[in-house]
User: What shape does this take?
Amino acid sequence: MSRVVNPNSTGKERNQLMRTAAELLRRLSQKSAVDDEAKDMVAMLVFCLRGIEEGIEKSAEVWEKRDYWIKAERLRQKWSWAGNAAATLEQIVQQEKWEQLPQAMAALLPHFSEIKILRFTRDPSTWQGAYRRLREQLG
Assistant: This one.
């Protein structure tokens, strides 16, 4: 019997979310002011970071089921920055403290340093309406 391969693995999803987040950071760094599109981008960044955090938790649970407790915990520690960054950006959005955005973005950049962006592959429709959806979720 052959092995079952899941083409939509959490690792693949994480890589896609990381690429999207890296492109968003690059585009945001080119903006001179926080306009409606920038707000949508920040909200989409929150959704990407949440997705990364959820994927890490799923992967860690798989390792725990196999009794690889230390490996699961190391994975969680290595990627804990994603959940923390999502929470920071959520606060910025919720409290409308856009002056804190550059500092939050600067803290994220080292985590995306290995992703080289030669051209943008994500369409602006990817983040359109994300700000409204996030505000609805946050209440």
Summary: The chain has a mean pLDDT of 93. The chain has one domain: 10-138.
